[in-house]
């Protein structure tokens, strides 16, 4: 340490010039170039001090090594080389410690020698004193000689004291505790030896740690060790800064789940940047060419394309309520399924000839009409009979065919047509029918369901040409309108069925019978004669071949009102 | 919302489900209301009728309808259920209407001629 214009400076210089042997105990040495700082504990025993910056530099060095090395082995080697420098320092420290020890031993030896010298001196002094005593004794013999001896003894005593002082000084420098020197307890060989020993221990520990570091290997799942960043998810900058990408976290609590838009992807991008779907994303797609179901393997565009196809194929009626009535005349809506039963109950299928009309107010409901004796009972309203060949009568085993009656006879009389008639059963308060035919004949018959006049008119309009070819108007009692007309093929085309509708005529309600005679001249049927005995109802004739019909009124009958309807061709 | 029967003068009647032209059921709270609805089924009003469903979509249009009959019953809750029987005019009826119209037109023309003659000879 030196004083320079009032400043306190440490011993300093270039590292290459540093010589620990020239250091004084308690003196600092600063290497200006290497920035090493050392404390001297005894000449030759200088311990380098560690600094914060040095640690930082060491860590930086290690980081650099880790960043630069391609393999763990290389990293270990690099670090080891650094450690070697540390080891060198350790060796030097150890050497210094050893030197300190040696110095301490030398100091001890010196001290011992000094002690020995002091003892010797003491002994000599004692001998000298003894000699002086002898000399004093002899002094009586010679005062001058005694005085000289006394003087010599004093000189000897003085020498012995000098020797004693030198021994104390040696002891002070050796071990301290003599009280002869200020700060001797921390400025003696023993103290410095202890310091050197402690530093040697620390150096040894450091060496062990360094050695441990040198021996560390690659970390495994079972032991700690060196690790290396993968350069993708964990990266190390040149300055040693470590970066790690955001990892995935599993959340059991849905409320704390990270939002999709919070996810940072490669290149610091979000899902929006990469074209992913968010609430605001748009998807470019094309409508599918065919209407097929979506599949789990479809991508987003494909799914949307299929969905668009389905939407495009939807017809307008898909978006409106079905029509729950039988009034519709405008296309575009679907019929409610409940109307199916309504239509079935109405049973207006003409192909099986289920036509009739009824004045509901006069006759009551036809649901009351049941068939008691006939087979194959369904919901009998009107009976039509046909034989086993399947042909409707007349012909075959059925003498009469068809009856149509919706008129209540208060007298319970039977209204029959060719033996098949409806009869009011007073006991059951129901209509019943009797069927007669040839004996041993199995008669298959079928009932027609009644419909209202309005419905009949509707059917006439749609299925028939709704054209009245013959019409008899009611006349006063006592006269009749004779009508006769023949219809040929050229007039009416191929006739499959004729429909005679006898309309209500109040004039004839009081009459029991009405007659109309129909003569046919069709193919396989011979001229037949039919009598319609009814005031209301329809009379249907089926023919299989072309021909003609003659329609005329039976004489002696009263005028009737009927209409002939021909089917649409 | 029920289906609706809209008459020519835009009188709207709510009709029950399952209606046919011959059986259109209308509910009324009182007899007076029922009569009012009945009275709206005039010849003129039935000359152009539209049927709309509960979504106000037109499902049927009719012209020249005729009221055939009306049947009303009182329900347990006191409301009046009325079934109107309608039908479309027959061709003869339409021709008759046309003839009637011609007759009116003829009368009008005749009156115009008479008036004109008075003017000429006045």
Overview of this protein structure:
The complex is a heterodimer of chains A (569) and B (122). With 569 residues, chain A is α+β, with helices and mostly antiparallel strands. In chain A, 33% of the residues lie in helices and 17% in strands. Chain A has helices spanning 52-68, 72-139, 143-174, 189-215, 300-313, 338-346, 360-363, 453-462, 489-492; strands spanning 2-4, 7-9, 11-13, 28-31, 36-42, 45-49, 234-236, 242-244, 382-386, 415-417, 420-425, 430-434, 444-448, 464-471, 484-487, 497-502, 517-520, 528-531, 537-542, 549-552, 562-567. In chain A, the strands form seven sheets. In chain A, strands 3-4-5-6 form a four-stranded mixed sheet. The longest helix of chain A is centred in the N-terminal third of the chain and has 68 residues, at 72-139. Chain A starts with a strand and ends with a strand. With 122 residues, chain B is of the alpha+beta class. In chain B, the strands form two sheets. Chain B has a four-stranded antiparallel sheet with strand order 2-1-4-5, with no helix packed on it. A three-stranded antiparallel sheet of chain B has the order 3-7-6. Chain B is elongated, with a radius of gyration of 20 Å. The chains are: A alpha+beta (569), B alpha+beta (122).
Topology:
The complex is a heterodimer of chains A (569) and B (122).
Chain A: E1 2-4, E2 7-9, E3 11-13, E4 28-31, E5 36-42, E6 45-49, H1 52-68, H2 72-139, H3 143-174, H4 189-215, E7 234-236, E8 242-244, H5 300-313, H6 338-346, H7 360-363, E9 382-386, E10 415-417, E11 420-425, E12 430-434, E13 444-448, H8 453-462, E14 464-471, E15 484-487, H9 489-492, E16 497-502, E17 517-520, E18 528-531, E19 537-542, E20 549-552, E21 562-567
Parallel strand pairs in A: 3-4
Antiparallel strand pairs in A: 1-2, 4-5, 5-6, 7-8, 9-13, 10-11, 11-12, 14-21, 15-20, 16-19, 16-21, 17-18, 17-20
Chain B: E1 3-6, E2 12-15, E3 24-28, H1 31-39, E4 48-52, E5 58-63, E6 65-74, E7 80-88, H2 91-121
Antiparallel strand pairs in B: 1-2, 1-4, 3-7, 4-5, 6-7
């Amino acid at each position: 340490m030196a004083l320079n214009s009032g400043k306190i400076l440490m011993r300093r210089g270039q590292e290459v010039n540093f010589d620990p042997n020239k250091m004084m105990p308690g003196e600092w040495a600063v290497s200006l170039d290497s920035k090493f700082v050392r404390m001297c504990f005894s000449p030759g025993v200088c311990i380098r001090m560690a600094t914060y910056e040095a640690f930082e530099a060491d860590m930086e060095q290690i980081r650099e090594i880790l960043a630069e090395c391609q393999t763990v082995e290389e990293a270990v080697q690099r670090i080891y080389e650094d450690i070697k420098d540390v080891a060198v320092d350790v060796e030097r420290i150890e050497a210094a410690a050893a030197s300190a020890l040696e110095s301490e031993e030398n100091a001890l030896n010196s001290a011992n020698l000094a002690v020995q010298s002091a003892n010797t001196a003491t002994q000599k002094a004692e001998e000298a004193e003894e000699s002086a005593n002898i000399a004093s004794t002899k002094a009586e013999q010679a005062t001058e000689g005694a005085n000289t001896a006394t003087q010599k003894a004093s000189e000897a005593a003085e020498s012995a004291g000098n020797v004693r002082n030198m021994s104390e000084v040696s002891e002070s420098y050796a071990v301290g505790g003599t009280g002869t020197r200020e700060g001797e307890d921390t400025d003696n060989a023993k103290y410095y030896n202890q310091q050197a020993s402690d530093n040697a221990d620390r150096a040894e520990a450091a060496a062990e740690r360094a050695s441990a570091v040198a021996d560390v290997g690659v970390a495994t799942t079972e032991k700690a060790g060196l690790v290396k960043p993968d350069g993708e998810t964990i990266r190390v900058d040149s300055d040693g800064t470590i970066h790690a990408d955001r990892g995935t976290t599993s959340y059991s609590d849905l409320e704390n789940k990270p939002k999709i838009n919070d996810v940072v992807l490669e290149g610091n991008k979000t899902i929006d940047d990469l074209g992913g779907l968010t609430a605001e994303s748009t998807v470019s797609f094309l409508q599918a060419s065919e209407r097929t179901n979506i599949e789990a393997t479809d991508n987003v565009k494909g799914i949307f394309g299929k969905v668009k196809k389905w939407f495009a194929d939807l017809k307008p009626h898909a978006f409106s309520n079905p029509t729950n009535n039988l009034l519709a005349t405008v296309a575009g809506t679907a019929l409610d399924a409940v109307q199916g039963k309504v239509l079935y109950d109405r049973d207006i299928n003409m192909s099986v000839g289920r036509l009739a009309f009824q004045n509901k107010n006069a006759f009551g409901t036809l649901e009351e009409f049941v068939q008691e004796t006939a087979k194959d009972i369904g919901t009998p309203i009107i009976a039509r009979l046909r034989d086993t060949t399947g042909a409707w009568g007349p012909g075959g085993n059925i003498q009469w065919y068809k009856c149509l009656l919706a008129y209540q006879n208060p007298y319970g009389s039977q209204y029959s047509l060719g033996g098949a008639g409806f009869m009011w059963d007073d006991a059951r308060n129901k209509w019943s029918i009797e069927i007669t035919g040839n004996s041993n004949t199995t008669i298959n018959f079928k009932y027609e369901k009644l419909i209202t006049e309005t419905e009949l008119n509707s059917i006439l309009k749609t299925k028939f040409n709704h054209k009245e070819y013959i019409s008899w108007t009611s006349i006063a009692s006592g006269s009749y309108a004779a009508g006769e007309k023949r219809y040929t093929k050229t007039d009416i085309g191929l006739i499959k069925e004729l429909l005679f509708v006898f309309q209500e005529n109040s004039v004839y309600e009081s009459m029991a019978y009405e007659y109309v005679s129909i003569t046919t001249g069709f193919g396989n049927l011979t001229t037949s004669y039919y009598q319609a005995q009814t005031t209301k109802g329809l009379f249907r004739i089926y023919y299989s071949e072309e021909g003609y019909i003659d329609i005329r009124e039976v004489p002696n009958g009263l005028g009737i009102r009927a209409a002939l309807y021909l089917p649409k061709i | 919302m029920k289906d609706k029967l809209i008459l020519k003068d835009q009188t709207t009647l709510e009709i029950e489900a399952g209606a046919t032209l011959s059986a259109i059921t209308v509910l009324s709270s009182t007899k007076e209301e029922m009569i009012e609805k009945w009275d709206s089924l005039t010849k003129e009003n039935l000359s152009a009728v539209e049927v709309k469903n509960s979504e106000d979509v037109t499902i049927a249009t009719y012209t020249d309808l005729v009221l055939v009959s009306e049947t009303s019953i009182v329900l347990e809750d006191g409301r009046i259920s009325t079934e109107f029987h309608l039908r479309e005019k027959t061709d003869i009826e339409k021709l008759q209407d046309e003839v009637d119209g011609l007759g009116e037109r003829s009368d009008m023309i005749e009156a115009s001629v008479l008036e004109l003659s008075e003017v000429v000879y006045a």
